[in-house]
Amino acid sequence: MLVQLSPIDTGAQELGLCRGFVWELPQAASPEGDALVGALRQAVDGVVEKWRLLQGRPVWQAETRTWAIDVPTDAPNESRYAFTTSCVDQPYHETIGDSKPLEPISPSAPSGEVHPFVVAHFRHADAPCAMRQYAKTGRPLLSVHVVRFSDAVSLGISAPHGLFDGTGLAHVLSGISAELRGDEWHAPPVLEANALSEARLRLMSSDFASLADDKVERPPVLRGWVPFSVTALLALLAQTLWDLWWHKDTLRYAFISRAAVDSLVAEVKKEVKAETEGKEWHFHDGDKAARGFMTCSPVFNIRSLLAESSPDLAAQLTAHTGNAVSPYPFSPEPIPLAHLASMSTGALALLHRRTLAGCKTLPWLRDMLLAGEELTQGGRRPMLPQRDWPWAVDTERGTTRWIVSNHMSAFADLRIPRAAAGLRTEGEGPEDLPLLAYYRHVQAPLALNATFALQLSERGLFVVASTRKARWESLMKAIDALDRRVTRRG
User: Using one digit for the tens of pLDDT, what is the confidence trace for 275-318?
Assistant: First the structure.
């Protein structure tokens, strides 16, 4: 079976996804650790057996310039997934240079900076990244890497971003959790035709008269993106290297407790309610768009919008696990730095909310898809983030443009029951192994500067950013202030 991927998947073909977890497990090198590794291997085996897409091999489609996955329909592949393990005879906190053991992450845990992602703890050195590497080497699409420390165990789940985004990877994590607990789990359907590609083409070929009434002002599309050119590429590289060398830009990680996030949400709700007299923004508990100034603008996938324009494909679009978010799809109008510094959290959140409302319309989505086709010449060339030369950026006053990241996604948890490690649950104690660390990592040939990615869970907000040292220090001060406010109110 040849499963067709979409042009949006092709846009992520050079990237790799990884989710990393670290759990507390005393004496992980003991039989308890052996039991856990065995349980994890069995769980992954069950997931890959049920979701045959993960057993496939990438095949390049020259005519459509997209990838397809050759999925076995009879006997499963012998090497269906990669499962690697290693041992480190040292406590986890010592391997990352901390002076004392890490405390489990909880909704009331203190916020603060987290140790950077250590690739060797979550990805095997042989794990590919780009789709073409998987096609050339024949390596399995799903890689699982387990490292046993003397007091903890780390687990990394990796897959090509060209296969799916965080939504698809979340299915894998949910499946592993279900298999570990003996719960029922249904794998997503594997379909040859790509409903998202079909709905995308239909929308681009439609006229405005056939679309829903456009009552909301549409924001500009793909602002801050330019067609590929040597000049644009050199400017991008120069700005990235300038920030890396001169401004100490690097990947940094932080955790913001759920208590701090909820406190900030309450403040924003109160301010926006007063600003709009309760008419414009109706909050509810599931409204992730309101969760603070750190969120920039929340992610929204295009499955539901495309289902409106192609109702006959609604069921297939709902089950679609591939990439369904165009990269950085929308931006508010640029805000001068002086104005941004004086804006309240509620005003900034309201601006993003209004922008989001303008984007979640079929006319805007059609405009964005057509603009992307023009910038990429029908998918034949990449588009690049627009960057000025670094000396111009550092001397200019105010802002001329920005790209708002859509990397606000739901947290895909993976809970390991104590029973999987042969441990008993005593009395009212926790049923799961305590989580010490979580990482969301994107493997890329070039790490873009000035990017933030966020994931919200019941424990709190996980932040990863490639940003200048001074900007990160400012963010840490803001996070510390949030925690102090929560402590005073508590």
Answer: 877 666 554 433 333 333 333 334 467 888 899 999 999 999 98
Q: Give just the sign of the alpha carbon dihedral 409, 410, 412, 418.
A: positive
Q: What CATH number does the domain containing 141 carry?
A: 3.30.559.10
State pTM to two decimals: 0.88
CB-based burial label for 202 (10 Å; 0-12, 13-18, 19+): middle
Say if 75 falls within a structural domain.
Answer: yes
**Structural domain that includes position 185:** 2-197+412-449
